[in-house]
Amino acid sequence: MTTQEVAQQWGVTDRVVRRMCASGRIPGAFRLGRDWFIPRTSIEKIPTRRDRACQTS
């Protein structure tokens, strides 16, 4: 998946997803040229802010 697809799914910006990739917070994410690609299996494992907010409420 691309960073744009993941950003839409998580409800965050593309830039946030790219920063997460660069910092190693998304396992399996890899860079090809200037673009980041993320395995679908990694998407399900990363909790988003929305998930954390729902847990604390």
User: Helicity, in percent?
Assistant: 55-70%
Q: Secondary-structure element sequence?
A: HHEEHH
Beta strand count: 2
Low-pLDDT segments: none
Distance between the terminal alpha carbons, to the nearest Å? 31 Å
Instruction: Outline the biggest β-sheet.
Output: 2 strands, antiparallel
Which range does the strand content fall in?
5-15%
Per DSSP, the total helix count is: 4
Whole-number radius of gyration?
A: 11 Å
Descriptive overview:
With 57 residues, this protein is mainly alpha-helical. The chain contains four helices and two strands; from the N terminus they run ααββαα. Strands 1-2 form a two-stranded antiparallel ribbon. α1 packs across α2. The termini are far apart.
List keywords for this structure.
mainly alpha; 57 residues
What is the topology?
Blueprint: H1 3-10, H2 14-23, E1 30-32, E2 35-37, H3 40-45, H4 49-56
Antiparallel strand pairs: 1-2
Helix pairs in contact: 1-2
Summarize the structure in short:
By secondary structure, this protein is mainly alpha-helical.
